[in-house]
Structure formats: C-alpha cells, structure tokens
Amino acid sequence: MRPFGDCALIVVAAGEGTRFGGRKQLARAGGKPLLVRTLEAFSSLPFAARILVLPADLAEGQGWETLSASHEVFRGIIPVCGGATRAQSVRSGLAQVPGGLPFAAVQDGARPLPPLTAAAEALELLAGDKELAGVAVCSPATDAIKRLDSGGRIVAHIPREGLIRAETPQMVRVEALRKALDGPGADQAPDDMKALELAGFTTAAVLHSGYNPKITHPGDIVLLEAWLKMNGEEQPPSAGEAASCPFSIGFGYDVHRFAPGRRLMLGGVEIESDVGLLGHSDADVLLHAVCDALLGAAGLGDIGHHFPNTDATWKDADSRVLLRESVRLIRNAGWAPAHLDISVVAERPKIAPHIEAMRGRLAEDTGLSGARIGLKATTNEGMGFIGRGEGIAAMATALLWRADG
Ligand code: MG
Prior knowledge:
CATH class of the largest domain: Alpha Beta
Bound molecules: magnesium ion
CATH architecture of the largest domain: Alpha-Beta Complex
Helix content: 25-40%
CATH superfamily of the largest domain: Spore Coat Polysaccharide Biosynthesis Protein SpsA, Chain A
Number of helices: 14
C-alpha cells in the first residue's frame, strides 16, 4: 500500500443532518458514533495530517474538549469549523493542510466503511498521473437507471454501462481543489470531483465492489448494524467504548462528628438540634455524599479535590452551593443526573419528618424530579460510633446519563 506520508486526511462532518433528523455523525451504530467509526477505519493509514471539519460548537472550546476526550481516535486530530455548504467545509479543511503536502483524501464523516485498498489505489493513480487533479473511490451502478419527467412518467432508460456512483474518499491535488473551490459554481457542487471538473480539471475513478454506505436516513443505521453483526465487528466494548457508554454510576460516603454550638444542616435543611456537625463548611454530610457520588460517576474526583478544606472560600460554606457547583461540573463534562439514592445513618435526630423538605432541596439543586431521588434514614442499632451518637454518616449513589448526544 502506497505510503500516505504526503497526503492529509480531511474528514467532513459539519452537517446538521437535515435528512437524518439530527447530527448523524454522532449517531451510534453498534454502540459507536459514526464519526468515530469513520476515523478508526483510517487509523491504520499513515496520513501526514488528520483534519476534522465539524459544526462550530463541536470544533471549539468545551464541545471539542468533551468530544475529543470521548475516544482515543481523536488524539492528534486538527479540529476545524465547517461552513454552510460542503464546499465551504472542504475549503476550511484544506486551509489546515500543512504546507508542502501535495495530496488530500476528502472523506464524508458519515461513511464508516471506506474501502482502504481502493483508497490506496486512487492515491497511487493520482500521484502517478500529472493530468489528473482528483481520483474518487466509486462503485458500479447496479440498478437500472431511468429518467422521470415532471408528470411521473419514465421518459428515458439510461444504459448502465459506464455509470458509476461517486463515493468517498476522494483523492485530490490540494492546490487544484483550493483553486476549484474558489471558482464559480463550486458551492453547488455535490462533491469534489464536480468542483474540479467545473474548474476545468480532469478526474478519474477507482472502482470497488464492497459496501461503502453513506448514512443518510435513520434506517441506514439499521442496515449498517446488520452488516457489522454479519461481519463479526460487534466486539466486547473496549476501554474507549466504555468511555462512551451512555450511563455512569457513582458512589459517595461521608461522615461528620457532632459538635456543640453548631447548626445541624442535613440535605440542605436546618434541623433543630442541640448539636450540629463539625466541619470546614456547614458539614452537611448528606449533600457531601451526594457531591461525591456525582463527581465520582463523571470521573471528576471528589469533593475534597474541588472544594478543599484548606480553602477559605469554603469556610462555613452552604453545601448546596457545593452541590450546585458539582452539578455544573458534571454537566460541563457532558453528563446529566438521572437518579440519586441516598441513605443517612444516624441515631439522632429523627430524620423522617424532614425527608420531603430535603428531597425538595435536592431536586432544586440537581434538576431532578423528586421521583428520581431516593432518600432513606436508618439508625445503627446502637452500635459503633454512630450508635453511640458521636456523628452522622451518609451514603449516596448517583446515576448519570450522557447529555452530549
Ligand atoms: Mg464532608
């Protein structure tokens, strides 16, 4: 296979998926986003640069941080903001091709099964023939092709001989395509070969007979999944796939000892009591356990990491502020709370009369409905430090779901 060392890969995935009903590049097939499959398909080829054209909110800032952290395959990729048309998006990608690279492979982000042998042949053909400005991977037309008039009548039977379907990757000379995309009509060109032709360049095709679907409608995903299954490509989730699992679960545990002269805050509610809990903040042991469960589920460490007890900011802090900040952090990481389940272990005071008020505070701070918050209390049957009334412990589990598509 020809070395791809003088070729850049440009994957175009800036579409909003109008026909698909949403961003199809992020739709999953066999548990993996299409875009990830497309990039992984090319990972064995030693391209000199890998450029990914995305909608602006995914190409920059938090959007890119979240996306690129989700799969190993995004490492080393140059993200670029796309434009309103395919031509504009390809132009943005071309602008990032490092100087001196003569060739680029332009690939649709929603074509997850590119035929690599044909791609290599296309690059070989292009590099070996100075007359050519582009070579597309194509497949023979297999259906009988007709032309309809506006009244729905078949008015022409088009001989199939010589008819081919243009797919991707399309191998191009970088300078030629740059020039072509700046020319008239380029914005309406359905692909790069057409843009090159409009600018007077010559193009060619390499045919293959494999399955190289462009995912356009939701039903195409079903066919793709059937193909993946038939070809044994459904494997146990790798570490990378586990990172893209749509759910995550976390656990939190906290304990605080009683101290005289302190307010007793529990679940964001002040409970009348002759003793409170000792701590740097307001020592709301229940909310601390919830924060730890949320942060843990999102892989963001623990409450001590984000709100250290050496930081004067959190001295006597209202733990609801800590909870709201924890929710903000997990949301920034692409997660949203789906369920909380909490147990408080205390010999005193009685917790039951306050449970509904606590649930209300938790609902306000997490955005969950009350039905999604389990809250129970138990004693320790007189045993141990809790049984002796020295303090209160709380345990929480949090279920998160991926909210970033
Ligand atoms: Mg604590």
